[in-house]
Amino acid sequence: MAIEAKNQGVRLVLSTDKKLHLGDAIRLAAQAFEAAQLYYGHGTDNAIDEASWLLLHALKLSPVTEPDYEMLLSDEQIANCNDILTKRIEERQPAAYLTGEAWFAGLRFKSDDRALVPRSPLAEFIMDDFFDMLGNNDAPRILDLCTGGGCIAIACAYAREDAAVTGSDISEKALALAAENVHLHNVQLQVQLVHSGLFDQLSDKFDLIISNPPYVDQSDIHAMAEEFHHEPQLGLLAGEDGLDLVRDMLAQAPDYLTDNGLLVVEVGNSAAALEAAFPHLPFLWLEFSHGGSGVFVLTRQELLTPR
Ligand SMILES: C[S@@+](CC[C@H](N)C(=O)[O-])C[C@H]1O[C@@H](n2cnc3c(N)ncnc32)[C@H](O)[C@@H]1O
């Protein structure tokens, strides 16, 4: 066996005893991940993809071009692979924090524990429906409320090169990461970052307000896998029923939307609680072909529907 499990199967070591091909290393790492019952969902959804991502990073190979699976690993390369695999298993850090990067809407972003790992189904909305939903608006103004590391704001800027995008967040740390991503993508002229608790420091009107706010409720947080506990809790928790921020958004958004403006918000599995709390609002729930749910669209006029 080219793999040994130590410390009751927790510590993974790819052995240098015999020749090891990249393809074998990925397969063995994936087996170890399964045995350790890791959680996937911060960028991948299965052990093989997770193992490939980490090993290609450790080997300094591109994550976007097909590697040579027959490639023989040197002892030094195996040691580098072991470092990252051991960290993933023992510390349960999301792979994005170990590699320092994440992919969203086909774009590469810097990722670390200053902000959540990008994974919102809004990526699909931005790539597929974005143009239709914004109609024929020239130079639309877009607000990414709760921008975190800036992935949604920056993806919007790519999707509509004529858009003026604002990304806002209450966390200065998250905004520092967002600024690095804005620089990475060279969209400084198109994306402005604002330090703001919800709408506190904002005054413009926007054609689209898009948001992936915190929406995890108190009971869910305890049941969540260890990987989530490496992320800033400010980005996850939203009170007893997960709706603390969304409630305020629904109340304040009409003041920050143009007459034909749209509010698009991810609330995940707090969707049922939201429908129950606002039965008078005609939420349009988006469907995604690449997974994910709990994203609603409301027009400004719909937001003003009386209770
Ligand atoms: C779920 S994360 C989303 C990050 C990013 N938009 C994404 O999709 O990966 C939610 C973000 O909301 C921010 N946040 C929490 N409370 C806030 C508030 N009251 N006002 C503005 N931002 C807030 C957190 O700092 C965090 O970055």
General description of the model:
The protein is α/β, with parallel strands linked by helices and 307 residues long. It has 2 domains: 3-99, no CATH class; 104-303, Rossmann fold (3-Layer(aba) Sandwich), CATH 3.40.50. The chain contains 12 helices and 11 strands. It has a 7-stranded mixed β-sheet. A two-stranded antiparallel sheet has the order 1-2. The radius of gyration is 21 Å and the shape is elongated. Bound molecules: S-adenosylmethionine (SAM).
How many domains make up the 3D coordinates?
2
The CATH H-level superfamily of the largest domain is Vaccinia Virus protein VP39
Radius of gyration: 21 Å
The biggest beta sheet is recorded as: 7 strands, mixed
CATH architecture tag of the largest domain: 3-Layer(aba) Sandwich
Task: Kindly provide the name of the CATH class of the largest domain.
Answer: Alpha Beta
- Order of H and E elements: EEHHHHEEHHEHEHEEHHEHEEH
Quick structural gist:
This protein has 307 residues and is α/β, with parallel strands linked by helices. The protein has 12 helices and 11 strands.
Give the key terms.
7-stranded mixed sheet, binds S-adenosylmethionine, disordered N terminus, two-stranded antiparallel sheet, 307 residues, 2 domains, alpha/beta, Rossmann fold
